[in-house]
Amino acid sequence: MGPQTKERRRRGNRNGGIKETNNGNHHNKSTQNERANDVMPNLSYKAHSTLLVQFTEETPTWYDCGRNTPGRDETIASVNQQQKQSGNANKNTRQIVSKYRALGDEIYGHEVALARKNGAASSDKDEKWVESTMKRGTLKDRIAAMSVVVGMDSVHKLYALDMLLDLAGCGVDTRHGELGSIPNARVGQMASEALSDLFANTLLPKHRKLLSLEARPLYLYEGKRTLSPRVLLLWRYEEMIKQRYASFLTRYLGRTLSGEDEPSKKNAIVTASFLLKDIPEGEEIILPMIVNKIGDPGRKIASAAGHQLRLILEEHPAMTSIVAREVQQLAHRPHLSPKALYNCVIFLNQLQLSRDEADDVDAATDGKKREAPKSLPASLISTYFHLFEMTVKKNASGKKKDSKQSATDGAGRLLSALLTGVNRAHPYLPKADATMEDHIDALYRIAHTAPPAAATQALM
Known about the structure:
Strand content: under 5%
Radius of gyration: 29 Å
Number of helices: 19
Low-confidence stretches: 5-15, 21-42
Oligomer: single chain
Strand order of the largest sheet: 1-2
Mean pLDDT: 80
Number of strands: 4
């Protein structure tokens, strides 16, 4: 075997694809049978000499790159849906994902080194000045320079995004797994404004959520099928962006919203609302963050949270049921303060309801003997009466004499808000809905036990 043959095997197949190689001899296989399920075959690819990801007018973002490459947009869900028709569904294993993640890191490292080499060969004074400003300028100039660098080349200059995350206190040292230090409020807020703008306008797609390698059909490439290095590079980069965005949400926004500084919390609520309105990624993290602030002890913070949620619903009315469900879950939490509960009820009372949903429920149940799907107005009414029962039980359990008058006033105000919500949601109930009939006894109980204002509302 000549040196050229060895070199060709080391570099992999000639077409630049990724394939499996087996460097062991035939007689060694019998001694490795016990570890056959744990040790995966090595992967090799032909080191590329030109950049795999290049931005053009047709592909201005990383998620636009490689659209014409076979397998670029494949997911396990889409592949399994096709394979179920033939009765052959499969999935990834932990070893497969770890193997391709390591190879993706190798390809990405070579891509970054190649981009750095090409950048050093070109003498662009503007780029060199921006790179210098990131390290030696004032705080405002450094943050602006980092944003410009990420905007110019988000794939090959990911280190600038990591520098911004470090300034916000949510960076992670991928080599040692160490967390970044917590910055002061001013530095964190400036970095967070730059990060939210980059995530919303440069890094995150607006038409779908990000996918990790676990969601990609990597098992398909364990046989003869070849995986393009460009596709694996883009898949791995997408996973890295997903990890960094989740760190920004959970560590910076989450930490700020759970702090004591009201201006910082208000800015964090506005940032979270801006991200939730523009991009679908991370909505399952952001929405509970904002909803929880409805119960914040600070009046301004609770009011800001409710206001931002209403702005979100104005732009995305289809989210009304989702937001209502989150607020209902908050209202049903045990040991929730009366003030926070009242804020939840007031927010639910202000939701924009529609008769279209009631008509859809009626149409879905016409001529069918099955339980009707619960509409949003019916769900709200059930929540209001459940909260009424809880309030009555709390009042019956007894309170201190010195707080009896204030407790009565608070309970009366809450009962009045609950009945306002019932009267507002009742006209939007589906025709076949029997929710009000189930709560007739509760209405009579309110009329006999509640303060005069609430009793009057119950009789109406």
